[in-house]
Design brief:
Organism: Kribbibacterium absianum
CATH topology of the largest domain: Aminopeptidase
Mean pLDDT: 95
Number of helices: 9
Largest sheet: 7 strands, mixed
InterPro entries: Amidohydrolase (IPR017439), Bact_exopeptidase_dim_dom (IPR036264), Peptidase_M20 (IPR002933), Peptidase_M20_dimer (IPR011650)
Strand order of the largest sheet: 1-2-4-3-5-15-6
CATH superfamily of the largest domain: Zn peptidases
Pfam families: M20_dimer, Peptidase_M20
Protein name: Amidohydrolase
Strand content: 15-25%
């Protein structure tokens, strides 16, 4: 059962600042303009999933300037390696004592930007309306900061700039290419419009939902629109299916288990005076609970078939695909992130957030190694930063980007030191 709110962490004496923390904080004034500059470059030059060519080249250029080696295991996307120089960072065989994977997604959305920002998208119909420009910039900033203190790294950071998160393909491609080989833990961060600026949420347990995609095809009998009794209207049956699908959540799923069934597309008919013989619906399902996740496609098939039958039509779920699995934070990794946030951002930075029903393919990395996915709050009404993710007006509070950079860097230091 999913709890209404994730548990709080108890007070912990190990969250006090360290000498490394002071070194990081001393870099904040230098890192902040760099991260904002990078974010604005990414924002101005967005590229959709699997076409992030210019974005990839820019990241490589920045890594070269930082003196950090990189490789490109996929056509787009980059993997950089920052080697620690602490005395125990590597064993005699040259293997790192520990290795942390830090991931930032880099793709944009097919959404026309309406922000009128001076650095708004220069690519028509494409924009960074989900914050991936911020993620790439924060990871570059964390690498920039950590590259000046490799003596504090007791192991190795593997920084993954991942393509194609929005289409749930990038993480699988990166994992297949071997980026999780030899990894001991994973860290990801998502700037988030439902969390207030200055707060971070890193609670353990489910954080983002299982994401499924489906299609239902409806078959009726075409006839003249003035003689509806001679046919079977697929549009009417499809409309009834739209309504009945919602009873799955309201009547067949426990009220304690979050679930969403969305019909995003409904197509049918060929002429205004013809009863439609075919129609089709497409949409998405979001769940956290494994049992609910498994039951919903079976329930959808039953609803589609029986509702259509009652109206003289046939309907079938002709496609049901998994986009990405739920993101579930490891308890120990979450506590480590909580400690890191308190060190570099202070105890007032810790927020509470239930988790969210959108999907995230960061789950693919968590299948390979335990880790944490942090929500970085960016909602500030005073700055006009209140629009939700995927809105054409989306414009997060840039003032929090250095917070995400410092948090990522501190987490890397603490994880490798364990």
């Amino acid at each position: 059962m999913t709890s209404p709110l994730p548990p709080r962490f108890p007070s912990d004496e190990h969250s006090s600042p360290t000498e490394v923390t002071h070194r990081l904080l001393a870099l904040a004034d230098e890192l902040e303009p760099y991260v904002i500059e990078q974010r604005r470059w990414f924002h101005r030059h967005p590229e959709v999933s699997l076409h992030e060519t210019g974005t990839t080249e820019h990241i490589c250029e920045q890594l070269d300037l930082l003196g950090i080696p990189w490789e490109r295991p996929c056509e787009t996307g980059v993997v950089a390696t920052l080697r620690g120089t602490a005395a125990d960072a590597y064993d005699q065989d040259g293997s790192p004592r520990r290795r942390l994977l830090m991931r930032a997604d880099i793709d944009a959305l097919p959404v026309t930007e309406l922000t009128e920002l001076p650095f708004a998208s220069c690519n028509d119909g494409v924009s960074h309306a989900c914050g991936h420009d911020c993620h790439a910039a924060m990871l570059l900033g964390a690498l920039k900061g950590l590259s000046t203190m490799t003596d504090a790294l007791h192991g190795e950071v593997r920084a993954v700039f991942q393509p194609a998160e929005e289409v749930s393909e990038g993480a699988r491609a990166m994992v297949k290419a071997g980026v999780t080989d030899g990894v001991d833990g994973c860290f990801g961060i998502h700037i988030w419009s439902e969390v207030p600026s200055g707060k971070v949420s890193c609670e353990p347990g489910p954080r983002m939902a299982n994401t499924d995609w489906w299609r239902i095809d409806v078959t009726g009998k075409t006839c003249h629109g003035a003689l509806p009794h001679r046919g079977s209207d697929a549009i009417v049956a499809g409309a009834a299916i739209v309504e009945e699908l919602q009873t799955i959540v309201s009547r067949s799923v426990s009220p304690f288990e979050p679930a969403v069934i969305t019909v995003g597309e409904f197509h049918g008919g060929s002429a205004r005076n013809v009863v439609a013989g075919t129609a089709w619906l497409e949409g998405t399902v979001r769940t956290f609970d494994d049992e609910t996740h498994a039951r919903i496609p079976l329930l959808m098939q039953r609803v589609a078939e029986e509702t259509a039958m009652a109206l003289g039509c046939e309907a079938h779920v002709t496609q049901y695909d998994l986009g990405s699995w739920a993101v579930v934070n490891d308890a120990h990794a979450s506590k480590l992130a909580w400690r890191a946030a308190r060190k570099v951002l202070g105890p007032d930075s810790i927020g509470r957030y239930r988790g969210s029903m959108p999907g995230e393919d960061f789950s693919e990395y968590l299948f390979k190694a335990p880790g944490v996915f942090v929500f970085l709050g960016c909602s500030d009404p005073a700055a006009g930063s209140t629009w939700p993710q995927h809105s054409p007006h989306y414009n997060p509070d840039e003032g929090v980007l250095v917070n995400g950079t410092l948090l990522g860097a501190q987490y890397a230091v603490d994880f490798l030191e364990e």
